[in-house]
Amino acid sequence: MPGTWLGLETGRRGIMVHQRSLDTTGHNLANASTPGYSRQEVMITATDPFSNPTMDSAVTPGQLGTGSMVNMIRRITDEHLQQNVYRSATDTTYWEDQISILQRAESSFSEPDTDGIDDLLVDFFKAWMDLNNTPQDPGVKAAVVEVGDGLANLMSYTYSQLKEIQNSVVSVDDTPEVVGGIIKEQVDSANDVLTQINDLTEAIKKIYDLGQQPNDLMDKRDALLEQLAEFGPVKVTYGYTGGKPNGELQVSFMGQEVVNSEDPEFQPVTLSLNYNDGGTDDDDTDDTIELVFSDPDGTELKTVDLTNQEDLSDSDNIVSGGSLLGVEAARQQIVGFKDKLNNFAITLRDNIMADSTNYFFQGDLVNGDFNVIPSLINDPSQLDGDKAKNNANVRSSEIEIPPLTKPCTLEEYFGILITEVGGAAKGADDMAATQSAIRDQIAALRDSVSGVSIDEELTKMLQFQYGFQASSRMITTIDSMLDVIINKLF
């Protein structure tokens, strides 16, 4: 038969269970607004019943309950939904990180301001028309040179602004080695995130080995995985033992395995960048950037060409997206804008004559020497007024300007360039807004599963409070009964 103290032990267990439940409820309420926090729930189970097998057990009451216990504190989450969270983070940052870069490019053209390249180009041709009317007027010649010099300076300044924007994305030295820029900062951050994921995984495994639940550490690791997904596509596989999670983790980043806590031989992976100079001098239209995965010995495990993104295929287990690919895509657009602006300058240079033998402009934007020839700056009277009509007619002439295959005027070409610059910025902004809305929806779905409901937690708090009070009352009642037996019965 069970002893007199069984009821006290049952009550004590009830107090401990409800106390732990209240503690967990308080933890949930305290983190109701914490980003990435997953609601926790106390799993209460009945303890083993009291049993005293004897010869006459068949005619005695059955097993007696001994109370309850906390089996585990469960973390409420949906791993499949979490994968969608990672994917939406990858899709969103691909466009979001392009916005500021492309908007800076758009602002560098100063269009449609009255002092932009387009307006100066119009003033330049008007000055030639004025010179055609008075071919020998030195004042008009000086005006032509002044407007031309202002146009050349503005085009050079705009090109240098685009170059600065490009360098803010990736900066190289003479080696060439990537020494700075947004992409390098992101790669350094990704390495830091990978280190933290590995360290957290080791701590999580140890806690699981002790039979405990590392809920808060799991939340931190999921937040880091989402942060890694912002840099590029990730694929996460969680480890299980006997159908229960064991804290193990496998992570693939841009098609390369970067974390594998199940394999004791697996070595940490480090990310770095290669800059391949595909051109000559300052021509960077064919330059490429590679993301390199290396082991601790420096052996390259895999390289991903961030520049030629159309070559990335599912066969390499790479799905486009993430800020690394997005920022590089924006950089490539900047390179394209620079190339088109330089083609515009070269075409203008090759079609405007100062006299029968000399061009009005010299150099190009790539080498930073595009300007009016110095002799005209020093003495505008050298201009041949008889060339004014031909130069003025260049405005309406349709010219083949690369990369366009159809001839157009200089103003039409520049208008196309401005449209492309503005369209790229607006397109990135629109796509970012769309993907951000999708990300918010997926986050809301996750929060509906994992998030803390204050009303629900307050209801549970009352439930556990009453359970605690009832268990305490039970102990008080048994204590009174024992007092009667011990002190008053005899």
UniProtKB/TrEMBL annotation:
<feature type="domain" description="Flagellar basal body rod protein N-terminal">
    <location>
        <begin position="8"/>
        <end position="37"/>
    </location>
</feature>
<dbReference type="GO" id="GO:0044780">
    <property type="term" value="P:bacterial-type flagellum assembly"/>
</dbReference>
<dbReference type="Pfam" id="PF06429">
    <property type="entry name" value="Flg_bbr_C"/>
</dbReference>
<dbReference type="InterPro" id="IPR002371">
    <property type="entry name" value="FlgK"/>
</dbReference>
<dbReference type="GO" id="GO:0005198">
    <property type="term" value="F:structural molecule activity"/>
</dbReference>
<feature type="domain" description="Flagellar hook-associated protein FlgK helical">
    <location>
        <begin position="102"/>
        <end position="351"/>
    </location>
</feature>
<dbReference type="InterPro" id="IPR053927">
    <property type="entry name" value="FlgK_helical"/>
</dbReference>
<dbReference type="InterPro" id="IPR001444">
    <property type="entry name" value="Flag_bb_rod_N"/>
</dbReference>
<keyword id="KW-0964">Secreted</keyword>
<dbReference type="InterPro" id="IPR010930">
    <property type="entry name" value="Flg_bb/hook_C_dom"/>
</dbReference>
<dbReference type="GO" id="GO:0009424">
    <property type="term" value="C:bacterial-type flagellum hook"/>
</dbReference>
<keyword id="KW-0282">Flagellum</keyword>
<keyword id="KW-0966">Cell projection</keyword>
<dbReference type="GO" id="GO:0005576">
    <property type="term" value="C:extracellular region"/>
</dbReference>
<feature type="domain" description="Flagellar basal-body/hook protein C-terminal">
    <location>
        <begin position="449"/>
        <end position="487"/>
    </location>
</feature>
<keyword id="KW-0969">Cilium</keyword>
<protein>
    <recommendedName>
        <fullName>Flagellar hook-associated protein 1</fullName>
    </recommendedName>
</protein>
<dbReference type="Pfam" id="PF00460">
    <property type="entry name" value="Flg_bb_rod"/>
</dbReference>
<dbReference type="Pfam" id="PF22638">
    <property type="entry name" value="FlgK_D1"/>
</dbReference>
<keyword id="KW-0975">Bacterial flagellum</keyword>
<comment type="similarity">
    <text>Belongs to the flagella basal body rod proteins family.</text>
</comment>
